[in-house]
Specification:
- By secondary structure, the protein is mainly alpha-helical.
- It contains six helices and no strands.
- The protein starts with 14 loop residues before the first helix and ends in a 7-residue tail after the last helix.
- About 10% of the residues have low confidence.
Length: about 140
């Protein structure tokens, strides 16, 4: 008994359209990564931040590390008056959820030559801390 098999259809996308769609696909992947990083719980993040970060950081004042209020959306290495490593000053990026996750996981992988001596392997705890950091607004 022969079964009918539909013919294979090949869809050809013109190169011009493909090259126009490629940046959109890349943007979607980056946006998805940012949303995935931001799925932590800010309340748990506040507790994890208190336990892991307050030896060097505060919310509103610079300490051993720079203040965290207004961190998301701020250019890395840009708090006036804080002494950053040359590597972080030259990093030329703005903090977002995905970069904060990478930074907390291993700052030296993200910015070789930076000065922060801390890393966290627990992805869920990182997501919680990032969610908390996203709630900290710069004072007006």
């Amino acid at each position: 008994m022969n079964q009918w098999v539909p013919p294979m259809t090949t869809v050809h996308i013109p190169v011009k359209i493909f090259t126009q769609l490629l940046p959109v696909a890349g943007y979607c992947l980056v946006s998805f990564a940012q949303v995935a990083c931001a799925q932590g719980d800010p309340a748990r993040g506040a507790l994890a931040w208190q336990k892991n970060c307050t030896e060097c950081h505060t919310v509103e004042k610079d300490d051993t590390g720079p203040r965290h209020a207004g961190l998301v959306g701020r250019r890395a290495g840009s708090v006036p008056g804080f002494e950053y490593s040359a590597a972080l000053k030259a990093s030329n990026f703005t903090w977002d959820a995905a970069l904060l996750d990478r930074w907390i996981a291993n700052p030296s992988l993200l910015v070789p030559g930076q000065a922060m001596d801390f890393k966290m392997g627990d992805a869920a705890m990182r997501a919680d801390i990032v969610a908390y950091l996203m709630t900290l607004r710069a004072p007006k």
